[in-house]
Design a protein that fits this description.
Layout: H1 4-14, E1 27-30, E2 35-39, E3 48-52, H2 53-56, E4 71-75, E5 79-80, E6 85-89, E7 103-108, H3 120-127, E8 141-150, E9 153-159, E10 164-166, E11 169-171, H4 173-183, E12 187-199, E13 202-211, H5 214-221, H6 226-248, E14 252-258, H7 273-282
Parallel strand pairs: 13-14
Antiparallel strand pairs: 1-2, 2-5, 3-4, 6-7, 7-8, 8-9, 10-11, 12-13
Helix pairs in contact: 4-6
């Protein structure tokens, strides 16, 4: 999802250079759809909506202007283009979601690929999905992303497989990761991953975060012993746990501080949360 805070910070930083908010063009696309799926008006500033966080945790969208309850501002990704259709579908029931409900984004149209090369099973699951309560039946591509439509504007809330479900509440990892990134200057931006693991039959939150190289080097230069350096790490871990508890009402099972470059990423720089989870479970992450 597009961060409204990042857009605002960028706009304020470069407004002295003449940057206009209308120059932003939030859009949504995938390689399987020959890139673009939705986009906005290139002469208009991004459309944003502020919703209640508690409702979002239950897959519900409730717009709010409250200054007392927890809220989240989402950036729209425009409207569907040309002959394409966007539907919001319950990912398990395969039925259309009601208005104001978060579901999986499904897409149909002439630019959608026919399938994956020599992968018939994956092709069937992804490109030949049908909405069970819609007639006439037609095939849609399942994007694996969650979102909703508001006045035909598409808002993406997260990745289906990355959602952390604890005590019946949905938590989006990017929100937790942003909280951790902002909590301390030694945490490397864009290098935090949140995911869940099962412990004694229940899901628990784990956070892994890369720290700057000088985090431990400063301690050594100041003559700190290994024990004192360990204490500094524990202080940072406790600080992260506190800020997550305060901002998200979540208890963190484990926090790992990693060396720079330790978090697995895709070739385009996206964090591979499933790989982080595997690395945590197998003990192969570089601490």
């Amino acid at each position: 999802p597009i961060s409204s805070k990042v857009l605002e910070r960028f706009a304020k930083t470069f407004e002295v250079c003449g940057f206009r908010r209308e120059a932003f063009y939030p859009c949504y696309g995938m390689a399987e759809a020959t890139l673009i799926i939705s986009g906005g008006d290139k002469f208009a500033p991004p459309i944003q909506t502020t919703i209640a966080t508690n409702a979002l945790e239950q897959n519900q969208i409730i717009s709010t202007t409250s200054e007392t309850e927890a809220t989240k501002t989402l950036v729209g990704c425009g409207q569907t283009l040309l002959d394409q259709q966007i539907k919001i579908v319950h990912p398990e029931k395969l039925t259309l979601c009601a208005e104001g409900e978060v579901g999986e984004i499904w897409v149909s149209g002439p630019s959608i690929a026919e399938g994956y090369w020599r992968k018939p099973e994956e092709t069937k699951q992804t490109f030949e999905a049908c909405i069970t309560d819609a007639l006439p039946q037609k095939s849609f591509m399942r994007t694996g992303d969650l979102g909703f439509l508001e006045a035909n504007e598409l808002f993406v809330t997260g990745r289906l497989k990355d959602v952390i479900i604890i005590n019946g509440r949905n938590h989006y990892p990017q929100d937790i990761e942003w909280t951790v990134e902002q909590s301390h200057p030694t945490i490397r931006p864009g290098c935090v991953a949140g995911f869940s693991v099962e412990v004694a039959g229940e899901e628990h939150l784990v956070v892994v975060a890369e720290v700057e190289r000088n985090f431990r080097e400063v301690g050594r230069r100041n003559g700190k012993s290994g024990t004192e350096n360990s204490n500094s790490s524990q202080d940072l871990i406790k600080s992260i746990q506190r800020v997550i508890s305060r901002n998200h009402d979540l208890q963190t099972y484990r926090v790992l501080l990693l060396k720079p470059g330790a978090i697995p990423k895709t070739s385009s720089g996206k964090i591979q949360r499933y790989a982080c989870r595997d690395g945590f479970l197998t003990g192969t992450l570089k601490v």
